[in-house]
From TrEMBL:
Keywords: 2Fe-2S, Iron, Iron-sulfur, Metal-binding, Redox-active center. The lineage of its organism: Bacteria, Pseudomonadati, Pseudomonadota, Betaproteobacteria, Burkholderiales. Coiled coil: none annotated. GO terms for molecular function: 2 iron, 2 sulfur cluster binding; disulfide oxidoreductase activity; metal ion binding. Residues 17-82 form the Glutaredoxin domain. InterPro entries: Glutaredoxin, GRX_PICOT-like, Monothiol_GRX, Monothiol_GRX-rel, Thioredoxin-like_sf. It holds the Pfam family Glutaredoxin. The keyword Phosphoprotein does not apply. SUPFAM superfamilies: Thioredoxin-like. Belongs to the glutaredoxin family. Monothiol subfamily. This is Glutaredoxin. It comes from Pigmentiphaga litoralis. [2Fe-2S] cluster binds at residue 30.
Length: 107
């Protein structure tokens, strides 16, 4: 396993909620990433790890291979890939996002 893939595996297993995004939670640098952050915040997430893919081209490419998902943002909860901003929006509308965050112990 490459160093990047190992870093990604450790990041998603060591942290209950991880959002791979463009920019930071304070300053998202893409509308999709901003939307993902808003949904997480509005559901009261208290422990959120973000990884800014714009800071590392290998991570930006590596996460797409790791999850087999072609775009950013990417949300992981308890080590499991959840999806991008469209899926996060859907899970928010059904209340499932709240439930998943509660089960991860981060709300
Ligand atoms: N519909 C997607 C939108 C995400 C998207 O299209 N992201 C683009 C623009 S930020 C992307 O990651 N492109 C590849 C890249 O920039 O590496 C979702 O649900 O997350």
């Amino acid at each position: 396993m490459s160093d990047v893939q190992e870093f990604l595996r450790e990041t998603v297993t060591d942290n209950p909620v991880v959002l791979f995004m463009k920019g930071t939670a304070q300053f998202p640098q893409c509308g999709f990433s901003g939307k993902a952050i808003q949904f997480l915040k509005s559901n009261g997430v208290k422990q959120l790890t973000t990884v800014n893919v714009l800071e590392d081209a290998e991570v930006r490419q590596g996460i797409k291979e790791f999850s087999n998902w072609p775009t950013i943002p990417q949300l992981y909860i308890k080590g499991e890939f959840v999806g991008g901003s469209d899926i996060i929006a859907e899970l928010d509308s059904t209340g499932e996002l709240k439930q998943m965050l509660a089960e991860a112990g981060v709300v």
